[in-house]
Amino acid sequence: MFEVFEKYLREKAGLDAEEIKAVQAVSIEKKIRKRQYLLQQGDVCHYNCFVVKGCLRMYTVGDDGTEHMLRFAVETWWISDRESYNNESPSNCNIDALENCEVILIDKLDFVHLLTSIPKLKDFIDRLMARSYDAIQHRVIGAISYTVEERYHHFMKRFPDIFYRIPLYMIASYLGVSRETLSRIRSQSVHK
């Protein structure tokens, strides 16, 4: 399992063998069954999670029981509740597995130590966080200014590898539309 993470760190962050060894020393390999929680609302998020295999989702549940999808994560993506992680506060979110998953977890204290002792890793994570912020800002702009059709096409274009791995109702929730509306848009797109 760690081999995938090692390859990722070598290619993306340029880590050498000694730096990889330091990361491996604090990495926790974990398998998560489909529908199993990685994080439940009310718990504190203590880990950065790298997805080796599978698909996870992060979501909140409204007072009426409606699930609101915030994000998805597949192979070589990271996922955690940043607010809970940064503030050591109870999470407002759930993270669970849509498929059987394999992940690498790194505890916050260990991660902070890695970032201070491996400058290349810190630079890489800083770039990754900046891209994450850009994506969140783009999603907010899309939510307030794009039509439903534009949001749908943007999602398909941006996430072609995961589009067919996620149930339609979850994609609808992510896009902020009803399942029926999304079905209509998909149908119209196929006929064009």
UniProtKB/TrEMBL annotation:
A GO molecular function term, named singly, is:
kinase activity
Write one Pfam family the protein is assigned to: cNMP_binding
Residues making up the signal peptide according to the UniProt record: none
Q: Where is the Cyclic nucleotide-binding domain?
A: 14-115
Keyword field contains Kinase: yes
Keyword Transferase appears in the UniProt entry: yes
What keywords are assigned to this protein?
Answer: Kinase, Transferase
This protein is called cAMP-binding domain of CRP or a regulatory subunit of cAMP-dependent protein kinases
From what organism does this protein derive?
A: Mucilaginibacter pineti
Q: What is the lineage of its organism?
A: Bacteria, Pseudomonadati, Bacteroidota, Sphingobacteriia, Sphingobacteriales
